[in-house]
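Sample entry (109 residues):
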Amino acid sequence: MVVDTDLVSGNYMTMKPRRGRQTAYRIVEAVAPARLSLALRIGPLRAMTIAYAIEPEGNAGSSIACEVTATARFGGWLTRALVEPTASHIDDNMKRLVARASGRDDTER
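Predicted structure, serialized as tokens:
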């Protein structure tokens, strides 16, 4: 994830998954340290939102939830084509985020 400017609503940031394409997302909401929502629009027919919510859990650390939503005109196949590749990497992304936050990141390449 690369934040090109201030992390505020309306600005853009880029993400490049491993073996994937770099993509610019519009920041919808950024409330440190609790929420980050990103939006991606693909033409006039498809849109996707990725929302991260972080909640403290006392002395046990924090809980991170990620929700991927998509809209597409003309049915489910457009929605599936948009969401499935992104959603399939969410678990791995969350594991890497936890490893980095705990100082035991061995995923850098």
